[in-house]
Write a structure and sequence with these properties.
The chain is built from five helices and two strands, in the order H-H-H-E-E-H-H. The chain has 192 residues and is mainly alpha-helical. The protein has a two-stranded antiparallel sheet.
């Protein structure tokens, strides 16, 4: 057998050139294609789960910034300093040392937190807080757009499986015959 990660196509071609069984070769290639398709679907699902987890954490962060915006809205010229309350981020320093979520299917919970400064310089007006909030919303929208693209990729990858289910519903007698053959193969393989 070929080493892990390497496809045995050369061996298959050599076997066919030497008069090997074409049906067996086709079966092996089709089995590998099906395995690859299943792995692609698993990977897509992991990426989507990570993206959803990152979006949820980012929404929570945006809510905290919104609390700071609300706490400081209506501040007239008399107030010289912004208020950062417990419902918000809690301090200006946390805006300069923010940890934003990025989707990472390999990380625990599907999210990696990355440190960044949300605003260069002092934050001393509500409009600066609103600009930070708008930037965070843009990041969320970007994650959502990427999620839509992944969803389309998943639909494309799932198309053969959905078509097989539709075919089984339209022609149940053929589906039962195929399932019976597969069931028999599994029973024979289990006995061996």
């Amino acid at each position: 057998m070929a080493p892990t990660g390497e496809r045995p196509y050369k061996q298959l071609l050599q076997a066919l050139e030497g008069g090997g069984d074409i049906e067996a070769a086709v079966f092996i290639v089709m089995s590998e294609a099906a395995d690859d398709a299943r792995q692609d679907i698993r990977d897509l699902l992991a990426e989507m789960a990570a993206r959803n987890a990152a979006k949820q954490k980012l929404r929570e962060f945006i809510r905290q910034v919104r609390r700071d915006v609300i706490a400081n809205s209506g501040c007239g010229p008399r107030r010289s300093k912004l208020v950062f309350e417990a419902g918000g981020l809690g301090s200006e320093a946390k805006y300069h040392r923010a940890e934003l979520p990025l989707p990472d299917p390999e990380a625990p919970g599907g999210v990696t937190l990355v440190g960044c400064d949300l605003y260069e310089g002092r934050i001393n007006t509500v409009s600066q807080l609103q600009a930070i909030q708008d930037d965070l919303k843009d990041r969320l929208d970007s994650l959502s757009e990427l999620g839509e693209m992944e969803s389309l990729r998943l639909q494309i990858a799932m198309r053969p499986y959905v078509q097989a289910d539709v075919d089984a519903l339209e022609h149940p007698e053929e589906d039962q015959r195929h399932r019976g053959v597969d069931h028999q193969k599994h029973q024979v393989g289990a006995r061996a």
